[in-house]
Amino acid sequence: MRRVLPFLPAVLALLVACDAPRSATETADPATLRATSSAAAPAATVSFRRELSQNDHRFVLQTTGEGNQRQLQLRVEKNGRELTTTTQVVEGMVADAVAANLNDNKFPELLIFVTDAGSGSYGQLIGYEFLNQGRRNLTLPELTGPAAQGYQGHDEFRVQDGRVLRSFPIYLDADPNCCPTGGQRTIQYELPPEAVTFRQVSFSNQVK
């Protein structure tokens, strides 16, 4: 009678195990894993950045993104200590920003001038006054009456002699959007003490 070697079953089991298909984890090439891993998201484009100071306050603001809707991040410090960091959506692009104290109190203001991305380039003001505790919003009054006649956007803002100046071209009735012929109007606003809305104090027209 033929004798079966005692170690033969173990050898056969080993051969079967070697022929069995391996798992994907065992056979995956590390180079393939690297190639198929998702790429890191690109950094957001910074479209505006400004650092401003007013007395013991420091403001760092920047916007990211493109098109008509962007993210505005604002960091506020006082005497080198962070007070707050906030993020909000703005409609349009930030054209300029100014730190001031227009009402001559001890609380600084931050004025952010935004231009709409549309063909009219309508302007708006995002304003804050920073108090001992928190901040309050500042706004411009709506354009009405004679100051609004011929207005179709294209605003430009600046701060001069303690006032906010808003300039824009004047459109006559037959003027196309590209070509206003009525000259330019400049409106002056001041911020009364304890007020949260600017007050229009004058306007003037300049004929080309």
TrEMBL record:
Q: Give the record's keywords alphabetically.
A: Signal
InterPro entries xref list: PliI_sf
Q: So which residues are the signal peptide here?
A: 1-24
Highest taxon of the lineage: Bacteria
Q: What is this protein called?
A: Uncharacterized protein
Organism expressing this protein natively: Hymenobacter psychrotolerans DSM 18569
Q: The organism's lineage?
A: Bacteria, Pseudomonadati, Bacteroidota, Cytophagia, Cytophagales
